[in-house]
Amino acid sequence: MSNINNSEYDKADFQGVYQGKTLIDSAEIKVVPWDIGKAQPAISKVFDDEKPGKLLDVGCGLGQNAQAAAQKGFRVTAIDSSSAAIERCKKSITEDINFLVANALATQLEEKFDIILDSALYHAIPTNERVTYLKEMFRIAHAETKFHIITFAPEKYGMPLPLAIQLSEICSNAEISGWSVTSVSRVEYKGNAAAIADFCKKKNLEIFLDDEGFTRLPCWHVTLKVRG
Q: Which domains does the chain possess?
């Protein structure tokens, strides 16, 4: 499996990709690769399994997960660092969702959330900033908060290192940040195959597709709770 340069990904242009610019310099990714036009199936299962409450969707992208949560009765705040993404959310989604431009490392939020959802954000945060991120999520959690993280897992037919993250790193960072791991499972994250075609070619990756033509990207689903 090929490796991707860490500093290259740290410089990914998340604002630009929502405006038709390439996400990274070494490959042409000009279409949002995580946009499948609907909520992620793995995320929809979270909404089915959890009791509706106050939910934070951190790194919400184009808002399909937030929309699905609102339709399930959750009271949703959805944040993203990309103002272009949030602008598109506000224009396209009619559900009562509080969409905000915010930095996940310092959200400026003061309320506490029952559920925090990280749908493929963790691996996009530079390695040396992940503890800061988890501590910020801890700050806006209460004793009963559940924190769901879905992030790329190392596997032959998945994303390359360091985008794919060892479970031991996630658990160690969680422990440092005041969280306890309550469950770990493997799930698939769906994506736009055409968007990453050039990336896969240049990084020599083989990614499987599902029956709808979406990429099947192996991920961890790690559930955290505030350590008592």
A: 38-187+216-226 (3.40.50.150)
